[in-house]
C-alpha cells in the first residue's frame, strides 16, 4: 500500500511539472483544453492539478479569458535562483574543465571602474604557465578580457572609461587611440571574441569571449591565456572553439535563453 501511494505521489508530481512546462514565452496563456492536449492528461485530471498549483500561486486563471498563466509563486522561486546565482559559482566547473582541456590558464573577469578584475583563475597543471592573482586589476583596452567587456559598453560609457583611464601603451602592439579602439571593438562584437596579441605583455597571448546573463547583457568575460608561441595559427582555431563553447555553457547556466537553446540543439 505504501509503495502504491508513493508511486501515485511521484506520478502526480510529474503531471504537475508537465503542466508548468507547457507554458512558454511563445504561449504564456493556455486554456484547460490546450493544457490537457499538451500534457496528454484527461481534462478532469488537468483541472485537478491546476487547482492545486493555483492554491500555491504557481498558476493563475484569468477571469476574463478563462485561460491559465504562470503565477507569482513561480516568479518568486525563479527570483531566488537569479538573485543567488553568481557568475563565479556557475563558471567554476566549466573554467576548470577548460584549463585542463587547453592546458592553459582560464580566467574570469568583470569590469569595475574602467579596469578588469580577475574574479576566478584556474591555472593548468604544468610548471611553466601564466598566472594572474585573484583580484588583480588590469587595464581593459590592452587585454582580451577587457576588450570583450568594453565591447558591451555604449559609446558614452566607453568615452567615460577612456577619459578616466586613458589608453597608455604597454607594448608596441597596444591600441592607443579611441578611433582604433572603436573599430577594434566593432570587430569584437561581430566575431564574438577578442584576442590579446601581445598587447599587454610581450610573449603573452589571450583569447577571450563574453558571458551573457538572462537579459542577454555581458555579465563577465572569460579567457584562456598562455605563451604566444602556443597560441599560433595551428592552435588558435581549437582554442577558440573550446573557449566559445565554455562561455556558452556559463551563459546558459546564468539563464541566457539563446545559449540554453544552443546547448539543447547540440545535445539533440
Helix/strand layout:
Elements: H1 2-21, E1 29-30, H2 32-39, H3 43-55, E2 59-61, E3 68-70, H4 72-84, H5 87-102, E4 105-112, E5 115-122, E6 137-139, H6 144-150, H7 155-165, H8 178-191, E7 194-197, E8 204-212, E9 218-227, H9 236-253, H10 257-267
Describe the 3D structure.
Helix content is 49%, strand content 19%. The chain is an alpha+beta fold. It has 2 domains: 2-83, Arc Repressor Mutant, subunit A, CATH 1.10.10; 85-267, Beta-Lactamase. The chain has a 6-stranded antiparallel β-sheet, sandwiched between helices. Strands 1-3-2 form a 3-stranded antiparallel β-sheet. α1 crosses α3. The two termini are 39 Å apart. The mean pLDDT is 91.
Can you tag this structure with a few keywords?
268 residues, alpha+beta, Arc Repressor Mutant, subunit A, Beta-Lactamase, 2 domains, six-stranded antiparallel beta sheet, three-stranded antiparallel beta sheet, 10 helices, 9 strands, 19% strand
Named at the architecture level, the CATH assignment of the largest domain is: 2-Layer Sandwich
Task: Estimate percent helicity.
Answer: 40-55%
Reported for the largest beta sheet, the result is:
6 strands, antiparallel
Write down the CATH class of the largest domain. Alpha Beta
Mean pLDDT: 91
Count of domain modules: 2
The CATH homology group name of the largest domain: GAF domain
**Oligomeric category:** single chain
List the total number of helices.
10
Give Rg in angstroms.
24 Å
Strand content: 15-25%
Placed side by side, the strands forming the largest sheet appear as 6-5-4-9-8-7
Number of E-type strands: 9
Unreliable residue runs: none
Spell out the helices and strands N to C: HEHHEEHHEEEHHHEEEHH
Amino acid at each position: 500500500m505504501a509503495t502504491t501511494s508513493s508511486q501515485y505521489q511521484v506520478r502526480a508530481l510529474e503531471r504537475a511539472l508537465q503542466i508548468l512546462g507547457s507554458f512558454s514565452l511563445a504561449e504564456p496563456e493556455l486554456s484547460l483544453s490546450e493544457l490537457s492536449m499538451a500534457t496528454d492528461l484527461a481534462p478532469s485530471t488537468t483541472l485537478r492539478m491546476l487547482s492545486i498549483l493555483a492554491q500555491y500561486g504557481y498558476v493563475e486563471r484569468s477571469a476574463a479569458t478563462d485561460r491559465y498563466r504562470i503565477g507569482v509563486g513561480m516568479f518568486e522561486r525563479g527570483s531566488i535562483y537569479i538573485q543567488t546565482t553568481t557568475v563565479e559559482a556557475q563558471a567554476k566547473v566549466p573554467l576548470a574543465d577548460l584549463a585542463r582541456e587547453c592546458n592553459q590558464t582560464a580566467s574570469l573577469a568583470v569590469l569595475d571602474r574602467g579596469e578588469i578584475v580577475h574574479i576566478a583563475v584556474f591555472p593548468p597543471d604544468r610548471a611553466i604557465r601564466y598566472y594572474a592573482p585573484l583580484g588583480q586589476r588590469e587595464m581593459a583596452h590592452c587585454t582580451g578580457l577587457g576588450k570583450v567587456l568594453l565591447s558591451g559598453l555604449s559609446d558614452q560609457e566607453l568615452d567615460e572609461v577612456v577619459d578616466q583611464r586613458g589608453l597608455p601603451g604597454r607594448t608596441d602592439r597596444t591600441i592607443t587611440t579611441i578611433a582604433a579602439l572603436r573599430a577594434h571593438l566593432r570587430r569584437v562584437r561581430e566575431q564574438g571574441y577578442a584576442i590579446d596579441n601581445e598587447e599587454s605583455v610581450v610573449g603573452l597571448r589571450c583569447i577571450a569571449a563574453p558571458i551573457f546573463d538572462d537579459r542577454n547583457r555581458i555579465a563577465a568575460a572569460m579567457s584562456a591565456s598562455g605563451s604566444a608561441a602556443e597560441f599560433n595559427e595551428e592552435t588558435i582555431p581549437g582554442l577558440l572553439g573550446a573557449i566559445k563553447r565554455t562561455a556558452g555553457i556559463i551563459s546558459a547556466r546564468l539563464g541566457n535563453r539563446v545559449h540554453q537553446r544552443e546547448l539543447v540543439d547540440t545535445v539533440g
